[in-house]
Design brief:
The chain is mostly helical. The protein has seven helices and no strands.
């Protein structure tokens, strides 16, 4: 489909499934959008909206894993550092605990806020039959869904 052709008007079932792909990501992370995508891959509208939710969840989970691995490595390196073991008070926690764990918590809470906002805003738009794109992710989902 070229950019000059109008986008197809989705049916009410397609709008409902696209809404579910967005909203259910709040509860089931990537699983619900993946199931919906696999069930209705032939519908470009449903595939487009489900792919947006899937891509967002992959990015969110990927960044979360990077932050957790980074914080774990930092805690281990701080605990194994010679100056940390030379202290007389061996029961004090590594300083990285006070840096990375709050950052990890802020990332997860901020991510959930973004997750909820994206799910509600784009769920409502998809329920009205709009081909609304997530910022940045939307173009990739449009290419992958062949829209």
């Amino acid at each position: 489909m070229t950019n000059s052709e109008p986008l197809p008007v989705p049916t009410s079932d397609e709008c409902t499934l696209a809404l579910l792909a967005h909203v259910l990501q709040m509860i089931a992370w990537f699983i619900a959008p993946l199931i919906i995508f696999l069930m209705r891959r032939q519908s470009r509208f449903v595939a487009f909206h489900a792919l947006q939710a899937l891509i967002w969840q992959a990015i969110f989970i990927g960044f979360g894993m990077l932050i957790m691995v980074g914080s774990f490595v930092e805690v281990v390196l701080t605990a194994l550092h010679p100056s940390a073991t030379a202290h007389t008070n061996a029961s004090s926690p590594p300083a990285a605990l006070f840096i990375f764990f709050p950052l990890m918590w802020l990332f997860w809470m901020g991510g959930w806020v973004v997750n909820i906002v994206l799910a509600i805003v784009y769920g409502l738009k998809s329920s009205r039959g709009e081909w609304a794109e997530y910022p940045v992710i939307g173009r990739l989902a449009r290419r992958l869904a062949h829209v």
